[in-house]
Amino acid sequence: MSYPIRPMTESDWDAFCGIWEEAFSSQMAPENIERFRKLIELDRTLAAFDGDRMVGCTAIFSFEMTVPGGVRPVAGVTAVGVLPSHRRRGVLSALMKSQLTDLYERGEPVAALYASESSIYGRFGYGLAAEGRGVTIDSHHAAFGRHVLTDPALRLRVADPAEARPLLEKVFDKVRVTRPGMYGRSPGRWDDVLADEESAQRGMGPLRCVVVEDDTAPRGYALFRVKLSFDDHVIADSDLWLLDLFATDPAAYAATWRAVLDRDLVARVKAHSRPADDPIQHLLADQRRLKAVNMEDLWIRTADVRRALAARAYAAPVDVVIEVEDSVCPWNAGRWRLSADTSGAVCEPTVDPADVTLPVAALGEVYLGGRSLSPWKAIGAADEATTGALRALSTAMSWDVKPWAGLIF
């Protein structure tokens, strides 16, 4: 059965919200719906219909995202859902294929998403490109080592989050270009980050902010909530939930962490997600006081292999013919010669024999530089016709700073 797909209009908004709530078994507070509406780009939101009823949807946020070597346009895929009554009918597949075709025709080579279910998106050529770490630190045993940098010019200021917003934006915009996966925050996105209604607090208390600065500029900040608790009603046993912590230099980074670790009445500092290579562990004198759990972060899809591979930087020279397997986007399937070094890259179609053969999801997985191609060879999903070619490609696509977006969209 065919389900026509078209861009959503303003009159479809209520039906769109209904699908979102059904698909995720949730209910959005009115203030959340209002903020969500400000973020959604109607012309980039596709809806599938059964007659006049919307039964599925998917949307895109237009981002500027850091990739190895610079900031590039990336399509942030979000709000993917199908009504329970229309599962297993090909609605999701049709939406995903329509969306990728639209990206290709627009000249947008890369898509990114956070996956609600990790089993879904590999079918459509996405690869898990970035991981984070859920972190818990025992704040009573969180002394720093002797090697930690300090700067006497720095001072700490407790600030109202909304009033400090221009300072937070300044720090964030300076930091985000240094890590693949981080994306620019629009005014609407900042509204969401700084939201502080009861629905946003989720029982963890009001949003709080500290700013680390000198006489010339802000150099770090933290946004957090404290869930106040007392063991046996006597001993403070509170959790500080860290939402955002960024700093522009090592001394400011250490000072910002010190500000949250030294918070009165707090027994533990927790973060749902921090970068996999977050330096905080190296600041602690006793690294065992940090407990970490690996977390999924971004999934990446190369919607246009030629443009995507030419748009990023490479850590080492490489000249390799890649045969790409892509059943969803047939324009990607075939052989591509990637010639790259640290000054630039060219990717063009070729009839030369392949050095390596890869599923397109493997290219998405390594695109931000944080993962290796070797597991794909180990499971037999990647083939190497030229000895050493897979390792050379993997090395060239690696990046020193681990990718991480850190904010679900």
What would you call the shape? globular
Q: How many strands, which pairing sense, and closed or not: the largest β-sheet?
A: 7 strands, mixed
Number of strands: 21
CATH fold descriptor of the largest domain: Aminopeptidase
Overview of this structure, please?
By secondary structure, this protein is α+β, with helices and mostly antiparallel strands. The protein folds into 3 domains: 5-108, Gcn5-related N-acetyltransferase (GNAT) (Aminopeptidase, 3-Layer(aba) Sandwich), CATH 3.40.630.30; 132-294, Gcn5-related N-acetyltransferase (GNAT) (Aminopeptidase), CATH 3.40.630; 304-397, 2-Layer Sandwich (Nonspecific Lipid-transfer Protein, Chain A). Helices cover 25% and strands 33% of the residues. The strands form 4 sheets. A 7-stranded mixed beta sheet has the order 1-2-3-4-5-16-6. A 7-stranded mixed beta sheet has the order 8-9-10-13-14-7-15, sandwiched between helices. Strands 19-18-17-20-21 form a 5-stranded mixed beta sheet. Helix 7 (250-261) links the parallel strand 13 (238-247) and strand 14. Helix 2 (30-39) runs antiparallel to helix 5 (187-193). It is globular, with a radius of gyration of 23 Å. The relative contact order is 0.15. The mean pLDDT is 96.
